[in-house]
Design brief:
alpha/beta; six-stranded parallel sheet; 8 helices; 43% helix; 13% strand; globular; binds adenosine monophosphate
């Protein structure tokens, strides 16, 4: 199978060709058609299997196809991941995948000043990649509203639980609109996930 079998829009295909992706990995082959159809997905995948593209590519495509006509840019996709390193990596990949679209992303994480992050948010982004603590902090300060979220990704769900993020995750999910697409990825699938 090649990426051209997955019905991705030309600006995304162009980016993939430029990056050098030809064949989708198995998680990409399985997840991309389901996510494009708007289904919720619980994916079992380790880091290194191509799971970032598995959720990002179909989300970018849906955001392009449903870009509001009024020119407003609200955060419509939220990706929550446990560590700063993963958050930065995901945001860098999304920037590459979306380079020929009008979809903007940014990344927020703790341990650094929030000013550069809030400046980026004020410019308007479609996709936000976040670690849980800083996300909740900026939500409380009203720099971020989750009211327009249509796509929610929980990455490395098992590590989130191990790292004690369960209360933060519950708080975040409580703020999401009922009507949304949810994608959960986890390397292991213990019962509590
Ligand atoms: P991830 O599991 O998303 O962190 O991806 C692991 C690595 O595989 C990253 O360096 C990606 O750029 C690369 N990658 C993801 N999908 C593909 C693909 N279909 N073909 C070649 N490389 C890929």
């Amino acid at each position: 199978m090649t990426f051209s079998d997955l019905h991705l829009i030309p600006p995304i295909q162009k980016a993939l060709t430029q990056i050098g992706y030809i064949n989708p990995t198995s998680i990409q082959q399985e997840a991309i058609p389901l996510v494009l159809k708007g289904q919720d997905v619980l994916g079992s995948a380790q880091t290194g299997t191509g799971k970032t593209a598995a959720f990002s590519l179909p989300i970018i495509q849906q955001l392009v196809e449903h870009k509001p006509k009024n020119g407003r840019t609200n955060v419509r996709a939220l990706i929550v991941t446990p560590t700063r390193e993963l958050a930065i990596q995901i945001a860098e990949s999304i920037t590459e995948y979306a380079q020929y679209t009008n979809i903007k992303n940014t990344v927020i994480f703790g341990g650094v000043s929030q000013n550069a992050q809030t400046q980026q948010l004020k410019k308007g982004v479609d996709i936000l990649v976040a670690t849980p603590g800083r996300l909740i902090d900026l939500m409380h300060q009203r720099f971020i509203s989750l009211e327009h979220i249509t796509h929610f990704v929980l990455d490395e769900a098992d590590r989130m639980l191990d790292m004690g993020f369960i209360h933060d995750i519950k708080k975040i999910i409580a703020q999401l609109p009922q009507q949304r697409q949810s994608l959960f990825f986890s390397a292991t699938m213990p019962k509590n996930i």
